[in-house]
Design a protein that fits this description.
Order of helices and strands: EHEHEHEHEHEHHEHH
CATH architecture: 3-Layer(aba) Sandwich
Number of domains: 1
Radius of gyration: 18 Å
Distance between the termini: 54 Å
CATH topology: Rossmann fold
Strand order of the largest sheet: 3-2-1-4-5-6-7
Largest sheet: 7 strands, parallel
Strand content: 5-15%
């Protein structure tokens, strides 16, 4: 079979679905791994309608047995993997006093450890090839965090750090690692988020709707820049500006600026 072999976790909706559609439209063979079977089937219909090749495998990335089964099935079906896109993730929100440890553990298990499980499971078969790529989906929140999203910010910062480590560590095996840090854009992220603080979900929904970029446009940027070998992929213009400010301003100047900007920011009950 021709075409790159691409595995996308969380490919049944949002950015994952947009990536599946984009890679499928560019002659890739796509496997959607997700816990949402209904959403995955809907995404498959869109891909095949556009002339792409795709199939679905159920997988909960918090369950090691699911991840191991996924890896063995991909090995049997494809014999290897060209591109692993660690996209599956969840959102959390709330001030410090509203986020209990259970919420922190939930978001870390999915956003961070889920990615680690997937990378550990698929790196061996990718190392056996001439070349391969891993694309980890983090967030702008992981590099320029804002208030009321402590656990989410921390999980995405961990994804950035993990990606930096893997970029260096796996280079000798000809595995290109990229990390994507998108800002807000229209998805259903707010609908599945966990928060016990009144007003947080509404705040996130408003931020998602304000974006001037779509999931399809974000997917196209990721596709192009990952193919070009870019490590850190910043999909939003304002996100790139914020990241540059943080990098080049003295630390306290940046922190004081953010404290002023965040003074009136927050959920309204």
């Amino acid at each position: 079979m021709a075409g790159e072999r691409v595995l996308i976790t969380g490919g049944a909706s949002g950015l994952g679905e947009a990536l599946a559609l984009h890679y499928g439209a560019n002659a890739a063979q796509v496997c959607i791994a997700d816990i949402n079977a209904e959403g995955a089937q809907a995404a498959l219909k869109k891909i095949t309608a556009a002339g792409g090749l795709a199939f679905f495998l159920p997988c909960d990335i918090t369950r090691q047995e699911d991840v191991d089964k996924l890896a063995s099935t991909i090995k049997e079906r494809w014999g290897g993997l060209d591109i692993l896109i660690n996209n599956a993730g969840v959102a959390t929100g709330g001030a410090l006093e509203f986020e209990d440890i259970a919420q922190w553990q939930w978001v870390m298990d999915i956003n961070v450890l889920g990615m680690v499980r997937m990378t550990q499971a698929f790196a061996p078969m990718m190392k056996a090839q001439d070349k391969a790529s891993i694309i980890n989906i983090a967030s702008q929140a992981g590099i320029t965090p804002i208030s009321f999203m402590g656990s989410y910010n921390a999980s995405k910062a961990a994804v950035v750090s993990f990606s930096e480590t893997m970029h260096i560590e796996l280079a000798k095996d000809n595995i290109q690692v990229s990390v994507v840090c998108p800002s807000f854009f229209p998805t259903k992220l707010d609908q599945g988020m966990r928060s016990t603080q009144p007003g947080v979900q509404e705040l996130v929904a408003k931020l998602l709707k304000r974006s001037d970029i779509t999931a399809a446009q974000v997917a196209q940027i990721i596709y192009q820049q990952a193919k070009a070998g870019q490590f850190m992929i910043l999909t939003h213009k304002l996100g790139r500006q914020a990241y540059r400010l943080k990098r080049f301003l003295p630390t306290m100047s940046y922190m004081n600026m953010m404290k002023k900007k965040m003074a009136k920011f927050g959920p309204r009950a």
